[in-house]
Design brief:
The chain is elongated and about 125 Å long. The longest helix is centred in the middle third of the chain and has 36 residues. The protein is built from 40 helices and 30 strands. The strands form 8 sheets. Strands 1, 2, 3, 4, 20, 21, 28, 29 and 30 form a 9-stranded antiparallel β-sheet that branches. The protein has a 5-stranded antiparallel β-sheet with strand order 13-17-18-16-19. Among the domains are: 173 residues, Up-down Bundle (Multidrug efflux transporter AcrB transmembrane fold), CATH 1.20.1640.10; 149 residues, 2-Layer Sandwich (Multidrug efflux transporter AcrB TolC docking domain, DN and DC subdomains). 49% of the residues are buried. By secondary structure, the protein is α+β, with helices and mostly antiparallel strands. It holds the Pfam family ACR_tran. It comes from Archangium gephyra. Keywords: Cell membrane, Membrane, Transmembrane, Transmembrane helix, Transport. Belongs to the resistance-nodulation-cell division (RND) (TC 2.A.6) family. This is CusA/CzcA family heavy metal efflux RND transporter.
Length: 1050
């Protein structure tokens, strides 16, 4: 079947070339429509449920809101994990599902359970809401709306943001939400006067009821007049401050209006967060969140176009500044990938021209790269794989051109120097030389695809990162097979005339020298093998001593400085400290701009308090840095300088995508998340402080963040029910008075066109102390006023700031970021030290998560799947050669190939990581295939009657060019990736380093050590020790016709 396809390709080569052109054009369209991002989205399938609980403490939120919601979600299909955070007035529950769960179905299940549990929540708690369908890569664009002239207030800017900017950006396809923050949220305030209320004999409750009833509209059907249908309606909506002031509080002959007992004015809502920029003051910002599965590059481009349109509609002097644009990092990363692709293709073309001696033939081979990638693009669309650094950045074009090299080697060896009289003879010559290698090409593709099977078995975060790579590589290899059998024979027959010679003269000279040295190598095979075994043990030992990381840290070009403070800090003080920290950051010449987010926005997608500041810092390119040489050093300098100059701050430094992705995966933004589980908050705090003190002393510890559960001051009013009864005061009136004193009671809405603004009833401002609140007055049943102090007790207490739970258990987290040390060895030392120095009471336990959890899970999975894949490859070798002994001889190249990869990582100072593991996996396939090349040729010579000694000598010499060509193509195809320093290259370099060094080392070892191993494997037991090799001048040197099946095994 395969031979028939080769024959048809050569016979109809013009049509085949046209078909190739059509395929490449289709590939161009597929590439233009491919979703592009910087990194694969590794977020879990999760649904976040946010519930506001006004006035409740964290303990009350946990008990009355969070716990019932968690209980409702228990037992959901494919539920993986439940996480929750209870903060003052806010509950956030995150429901994490198995990766096989569809996110939309998951949201449907959560919504159904929420409808059931809503009745169990307190009546004053608004219905729970689902967070937007976004991911760790969802925050794609951050902008600031500011006044250049200073003529616009913070309230005016926020109003423009909410009603003119955000709705238009939210309408962009692919945008799921725009989260506004900062500025002042406009409200209409009705501020009462207790003395006037008393003088008119009114209560706060009466006034609240009057305002709530005063703004309404009603439909009264319709009337027909002169053939027309006319609607009848009543409109009593409040339109402005004057309407509010004229609301009747009490009717009768002497009506009392609002303006007689209260002041009506425009004010701002109670704020829970603030944003500042460049130490210059407050700003209003918007964060654009992308819909799950959307194309980040196209969505960001559409957002920027919409921002430009909105800018034209804003008043003069109001401008929108871009602070963070994810497409910058995406474009830089894509540029890195494209640069590697172009450089790799040029290197492959040059190597083939040098080794094969035919430029036309080399061009025909290189055309296999875009053809294979086109089929890979079709596969990416079919399987929903995004084009990113992992899926596209790790493809070695040397693997994709292996098949065409096999065919071209066979053609050159068979047709070199032959003379043809007719065109039909040339056609038949191409068919006869190319057809026999169709099966070896298929075998080579199967071997390479098999080595990627372990990646398809990865789960969790590591699976989301590396399964797309394996999928794309498998599709590309399938494309290489299709090109090799269907397109390449016809294309090369069209482009290349029959070769006049078998190759460059320098290869012939090299072969002669190798053939003279080979008998010595074979005779010393056991010494060489022992030396290589020692080298393998030493190199792997040294590599493992360096430790292991999950994935090297990718430099995104910008950083996030997270500042933690005491939980009791007020928003005004936090704002002051933010400005000081920004001033410190602006003193760094590397910093372009800063934007600080403290607390939470009104939408509350991120449930944090005033004690948390996320400061986005935009940096200049690294080559312009002067304060530090790399990101780790700059992070350490920033941390030390802010903590030393800004009092009461704890600083950690991360990056935007890294920070958000870590948080969504494990609920933590750190490299390592140490969680202590137990029931008592005081014990959790004590043990977390002890763990923090222990790990802070370890080498490689950068930032240590201990979650502060306690320390939130409260002023708590406890009513005396006997006094309430004696004075005739309803408890609801007391609580309304407290509410009106601080946040205000919502009594209506004012519509200004499409804009909506709340109307709130407030008491006059009081002192922010217990005494000030105690002096508030409540109306009694007989018209007198009594203070809160007389109705109960007001006490200053201290309670939890946060209650965190995971799978129904309370927990506290110690977060650690590392500097200059690998993840695996640090965690191993930390686990041993914590277990020894921090004993836990019965019922308490500690877990280790974050990036370490991903590394550990990947190692466990690979420890099972990699040996299984290697066993399958061994089985294929046994089937191919019909001998376990020969198969084991070829398979012995796998451990030898690891030597070069290990040395490469050691020389370049790199730790073992998952990308490096992928490189070792690919290296194993290449090593086996090179062994197949030589073994196939030697066995054919044996079948032709050659002695074992001569067969090994001739076979090794004959395969020299094939081995060197494919090794050079594979190694040099990865070389640009190994030395690249562009955006995202941190992930590619370990993989490429292993492949480049490994292939070079494996090729040398195969040419030196493997012929001796092969002789032992092919010899009969009685002749194993025979080393009577012919001398070079005794060897009959016939014409070099490379066995097609041995031309290249991969």
């Amino acid at each position: 079947m395969l031979s028939r396809l080769v024959a048809l390709s050569v016979q109809y080569r013009t049509g085949v070339a046209g078909g190739l052109l059509v395929l490449l054009v289709a590939g161009g369209f597929a590439a233009a429509r491919l979703p592009i991002d910087a990194m694969p989205d590794v977020s879990t399938v999760q649904v976040a449920v946010l519930t506001e609980a006004p006035g409740l403490s964290p303990i009350e939120v946990e008990r009355m809101v969070t716990a019932p919601i968690e209980l409702a979600f228990n037992g959901l299909p494919r539920l993986s994990e439940l996480r929750s955070v209870s903060r003052p007035g806010l509950s956030a529950v995150t429901v994490v599902f198995d990766d096989s769960m569809d996110v939309w179905f998951a949201r449907q299940l959560v919504s159904e359970r929420l409808r059931e549990v809503t009745a169990d929540l307190p009546a004053f708690v608004p219905p729970p809401q689902l967070a937007p369908v976004s991911t760790g890569l969802g925050e794609i664009y951050i902008f600031v709306v500011r006044s250049e002239t200073g003529d616009h207030s913070a309230m005016q800017l926020r109003t423009m943001l909410d009603w003119e900017v955000v709705p238009k950006i939210r309408a962009v396809p692919g945008v799921i939400e725009v989260n506004p923050m900062g500025g002042e949220l406009k409200q209409y305030h009705v501020v009462t006067s207790p003395s006037k209320l008393k003088s008119f004999g009114l209560t706060l409750s009466q006034m609240q009821n009057a305002l709530e009833r005063s703004s309404s509209s009603v439909g009264a059907g319709y009337v027909e007049r002169e053939g027309e249908n006319i609607l009848v309606r009543g409109n009593g909506r409040l339109l402005n401050e004057e309407d509010i002031a004229n609301v009747i509080v009490r009717g009768g002959s002497n009506p009392v209006l609002v303006k007689q007992i209260a002041d009506v004015k425009i004010g701002s809502a109670l704020r829970y967060g603030v944003t500042t920029r460049d130490a210059e003051g407050e700003v209003v910002t918007g964060t654009v969140m992308m819909l799950l599965g959307a194309n980040s590059r196209s969505v960001t481009a559409a957002v920027k176009d919409r921002v430009a349109e909105v800018q034209k509609t804003l008043p003069p002097g109001v401008v929108i500044d871009t602070i963070y644009d994810r497409s910058d990092f995406v474009n830089a990363t894509v540029g890195t990938v494209i640069k590697n692709i172009i450089e790799g293709a040029l290197v492959v073309l040059l190597v083939l021209a040098v080794f094969l001696g035919t430029v036309r033939g080399a061009i025909a081979v290189v055309l296999g790269i875009p053809a294979s990638m086109t089929i890979a693009l079709f596969g990416m669309h079919l399987f929903g794989v995004t084009g990113d650094l992992m899926s596209l950045g790790a493809i070695d074009f040397g693997f994709l051109v292996d098949g065409p090299i096999v065919v071209l080697e066979a053609i050159i060896a068979s047709l070199a120097g032959r003379h043809f009289r007719k065109k039909s003879e040339i056609t038949q010559g191409f068919i006869d030389s190319a057809a026999p290698v169709a099966r070896p090409v298929a075998f080579s593709v199967a071997i390479i695809m098999l080595v990627y099977i372990p990646l398809l078995a990865l789960q969790g975060v590591e699976g989301k990162m590396f399964r797309p790579m394996a999928t794309v590589m498998a599709c590309a290899l399938f494309g290489a097979l299709v090109y090799s059998v269907v397109f390449f024979p016809g294309v090369v027959a069209l482009l290349m005339p029959p070769p006049k010679n078998s190759g460059p003269r320098w290869l012939g000279v090299l072969r002669e020298k190798y053939e003279r040295l080979l008998p010595g190598f074979i005779s010393k095979r056991w010494v060489l093998l022992a030396a290589m075994s020692v080298a393998l043990v030493v190199s792997m030992y040294l590599l493992l001593q360096r430790g292991a990381d999950f994935v090297p840290r990718i430099q995104e070009g910008d950083i996030v400085v997270t500042i933690r403070r005491t939980p009791s800090i007020g928003l005004t003080e936090a704002r002051r400290l933010d400005l000081e920290a920004e001033k410190v950051l602006k003193s760094f010449p590397e910093v372009i701009t800063t934007l600080a987010f403290t607390g939470r926005a009104e939408l509350a997608f991120d449930p944090v308090g005033n004690d948390n500041t996320d400061m986005f810092v935009r940096l200049k390119p690294e080559e312009e840095w002067t304060s530090a040489h790399d990101l780790d050093e700059l992070s350490e300098v920033i941390k030390e300088r802010i903590e030393s100059q800004v009092a009461g701050t704890f600083v950690s430094v991360s990056q935007p995508i890294e920070d958000r992705t870590n948080e969504l995966i494990s609920g933590s933004r750190a490299d390592v998340a140490i969680q202590i589980f137990g029931a008592d908050l005081d014990t959790l705090v004590e043990k977390s402080n002890a763990v923090g003190d222990v790990v802070r002393k370890l080498q490689g510890t950068g930032d240590v963040r201990i979650e502060r559960l306690l320390g939130m001051p409260n002023i708590v009013f406890t009513p005396d029910r006997e006094r309430l009864a004696r004075y005739g005061v309803e408890l609801d009136d007391v609580f309304r008075t407290l509410e009106a004193a601080r946040v205000g009671a919502r009594v209506g809405v004012i519509y200004e066109g499409p804009k909506r603004f709340e109307v709130r009833l407030l008491s006059p401002p009081t002192e922010n102390t217990r005494k000030g609140l105690g002096d508030l007055f409540v109306e009694t049943s007989d018209g007198h006023q009594v203070s809160l102090d007389e109705l109960g007790s007001l006490e200053d207490t201290e309670g939890p700031a946060t209650v965190r739970r995971e799978n129904f258990m309370r927990t506290v987290r110690v977060e650690v970021n590392l500097r200059g040390r690998d993840l695996a060895s640090w965690v191993a030392e930390a686990q041993a030290t914590v277990q020894k120095e921090v004993p836990l009471p019965t019922g308490y336990n500690v877990t280790w998560g974050g990036q370490f959890e991903n590394l550990e899970r990947a190692q466990q999975r690979l420890a099972i799947v990699v040996p299984l894949a290697l066993l399958i490859i061994l089985g294929m070798l046994v089937m191919t050669f019909g001998s376990v002994r020969v198969a084991l001889g070829v398979f012995s190249l796998v451990p030898l190939a690891l030597i070069g990869g290990a040395i490469g990582l050691l020389v370049r100072g790199m730790n073992f990581s998952l990308p490096a593991a992928v490189g070792f996996i690919a290296l194993a396939g290449v090593a086996v295939l090179n062994g197949v090349v030589m073994t196939t040729d030697v066995k054919k010579l044996l079948d032709q009657g050659e002695s074992l000694d001569k067969a090994v000598l001739h076979g090794a010499a004959h395969t020299l060019r094939a081995v060197l060509t494919t090794a050079a193509v594979a190694a040099l195809g990865f070389f640009p990736m190994a030395i690249n320093t562009g955006a995202g290259s941190e992930v590619q370099r370990p993989l490429a380093t292993v492949v480049v060094f490994g292939i070079v080392g494996a090729t040398v070892l195969m040419l030196v050590v493997f012929p001796g191993i092969l002789k032992f494997a092919l010899s009969k037991p009685a002749t194993v020790e025979s080393d009577d090799l012919p001398q070079p001048d005794e060897v009959t040197d016939g014409p070099e016709v490379l066995n097609p099946s041995a031309a290249k095994g991969h």
